Amino acid sequence: MKTKHTQGPWQIMGESIVSDGWVGGMPEIARVGGANDEQLRANAELIVQAPTLLSQRDALLTAAKRFFEVADVQYADNFHDLKAAINLCSNDKMENVK
After folding, report:
1. What confidence tens digit (pLDDT) does each residue in 11-59 have?
2. Biggest CA-to-CA distance, the chain
3. What end-to-end distance do the CA atoms of the chain give, in Å?
4. Alpha-carbon dihedral of residues 43, 32, 10, 56, nearest 10 degrees?
5. What angle do CA 76, 56, 94 make, to 5 degrees?
6. Is the CB of residue 81 less than 8 Å from the CB of residue 87?
7. 3-state DSSP call for residue 81?
8. Hey, is 97 helix, strand or coil?
């Protein structure tokens, strides 16, 4: 699957999030801050999981779509509600859902 973001996996290096999936180096994805070291680390760990969470989101929605295709018609609106909710927090507007 082709993505618009830098491929994962990502990792934490100090205050930076870097990609070790980049050919020819480790470009900085983001610089992380926080009120203290504990918060900085928690913020960094959340960001590092973004590629995995995106992939899991797409897999979950594909499975949900298949379920709703064979489930009782009464559930059809649930899938559309689920897609709409995820579209609110997504830039790709469900392009990867099969």
Report:
1. 998 899 998 766 566 688 899 999 999 999 999 999 999 988 888 888 8
2. 52
3. 12
4. 40
5. 50
6. no
7. helix
8. coil
